[in-house]
Amino acid sequence: MTNKELLAAESGTVRKEWAGKIRIALAYPNHYHVGMSNLGFHAIYRLLNNYEDVVCERVFLPEDNGATHSGLRSMESQRPLVDFDIIAFSISFENDYPNLLTLLTKAGIPRWSSERDTPHPLVIAGGVTAFLNPEPIAPFVDCFLVGEAEPILRVFLDVYIKHSNKEELLEVLAAHVPGVYVPALYDVIYNPDGTIAGFRPKSGAPAKVHRVAVEDLSSWDTSSIILTPHTTFGDTYLVEAGRGCPHGCRFCAAGFVYRPPRFRPKDALQNCLEKGTIRSNRIGLMAAAVSDVPNIEELCRKALDQGVQLSFSSLRADRLTPELLSILRRSGLKTVTIAPDAGSERMRRVINKGINDQDVLRAADLLVGAGIPNLKLYFMVGVPTETMLDVEAIVALCKQVKHRFLKASRTKKRIGQITVSLSSFIPKPFTPFQWVSLEDVKILKAKIKHVKEGLRRVANVRVHADVPRWAYIQALLSRGDRRTAQLLAAVHENNGNWAKTLKASIINPDFYVYRERSLDEILPWDFIDHGINKAFLIEEYHKALHEETSPPCDVGRCKACGVCK
């Protein structure tokens, strides 16, 4: 669809006059339906347009890859990107990094930061990838906003309007605005073996970039600003119920970099739900696990009484209460997602998941009994210490869930669908597994094949799996250093052909993907300070290897990780 057609289908699009404004193109490096399904993208769009001195318009990757430079324009006013003062990329997934280069190229803007000067728009980037590991795209971006954008943006813009010279602007931003990272102000020194010897700031830049976080979620509105049928969620009004997660699963970056976990207060969440009922009769509550949100049952019951249908991003198998099940049933939900993440209880101790087989089976019983016929189960393969016995446990657990479904469904005279989603474990920065390597792609393929074969003849069970070679690319982009940008530039020149690029490259990608890091090695992302003690992550890593668990976050009282002072 064209921008004009998409705009016509939207409800709530912001349109502002340009005169005298800071002109910002908010760019999502993927297609419209993906970007507009991202609640964080909505939040930044609203926040920027709430400023009187800012006009913010959206840009997405064109559906037509053959679009010309002149064809890449903002949605709202159809202006080319070169007319904007700032291009702000919101990047949630590492695999979207190549699309950043595509967007710049289609806009006629030099890809490398060093080739852009004051007449060019300032290129900035934020999103969760910016405070995990921005280094693989550092040479393309003028500055990153490290952390949650709400407290940063106004301070950033106040500095921006005072400086017309790009070099001077970046130096002031790095020195005086918390959370701003300017790659050009840091020199990376390498050892002969390719590891990092040092990360040296210059021109007043801080040695550590401190992640910025929102203390009180009630101060900010994180809900849908635009409703459109052309997204994953359709016309569902999305509301952020919580940010971060207290459970400390050791593979999950969000559970560490969004510490401490915060939930939207009852009154603030009630206000969001009331606003949502005006916009739509469908509201989606978003959190790492909605069942953890305080007062969630009471709030949902009130919304249901107003004729609203509710959906939840994810639920924990051990937190399903009779009241929550009643809410799910009244909402007319046909599918609920639960993430055991591992098939065996041993592996769930390794990853600190905090649930057991009985929790999963009990959840299956309760959901079918509540009239919810379909279940999605998420699992990973390739987690540290995993054996084929643990992989076989995925098959066994799924068969047990199917048996429970069959037994509970007999009274309903109908059995629903069980969808098993398999993904390859990717070691992420700032987690206890940040030092481990990706498992060999051939082994990942064998494990996925084993699960598929084991469930192939089981009726009403479907298995969806990711492609391990793309997991390899994501691991490369998650764990790479600044030199990885050369690979991104090459894959851009090769029209996205990763196989050709990696084969021709003098940079060995296995160095980043398959190499286990030593605990005292300087990691590419070590310059970012999330407040988490590295000693805590090392302790959690050792506990994982010994199959020992840790308790959930006790916010404000526990000092173990260092975030709560």
Outline the fold blueprint.
Layout: H1 3-9, E1 22-28, H2 32-35, H3 39-50, E2 54-60, E3 86-90, H4 97-106, E4 122-126, E5 143-145, H5 153-160, H6 166-176, E6 180-181, E7 186-190, E8 196-201, E9 209-210, E10 237-240, E11 242-243, H7 254-257, E12 262-263, H8 266-279, E13 282-286, H9 296-305, E14 309-312, H10 322-330, E15 335-341, H11 345-350, H12 357-369, E16 374-381, H13 388-409, E17 418-424, H14 441-455, E18 461-465, H15 468-479, H16 484-493, H17 498-504, H18 510-513, E19 528-529, H19 534-545
Parallel strand pairs: 1-2, 1-3, 3-4, 4-5, 9-19, 10-13, 13-14, 15-16, 16-17, 17-18
Antiparallel strand pairs: 5-6, 7-8, 11-12
Helix pairs in contact: 4-16, 9-10, 12-13, 13-14, 14-15
Short description:
The chain is of the alpha/beta class and 565 residues long. It has 19 helices and 19 strands. The chain folds into two domains: 3-210, Rossmann fold (3-Layer(aba) Sandwich), CATH 3.40.50; 236-479 and 531-545, Alpha-Beta Horseshoe (pyruvate-formate lyase- activating enzyme), CATH 3.80.30.20.
General description of the model:
By secondary structure, the chain is α/β, with parallel strands linked by helices. It has 2 domains: 208 residues, 3-Layer(aba) Sandwich (Rossmann fold); 259 residues, Alpha-Beta Horseshoe (pyruvate-formate lyase- activating enzyme), CATH 3.80.30. 34% of the residues lie in helices and 16% in strands. It has a 6-stranded mixed sheet, covered by helices on one side. Strand 13, helix 9 and strand 14 form a beta-alpha-beta unit. The termini are far apart.
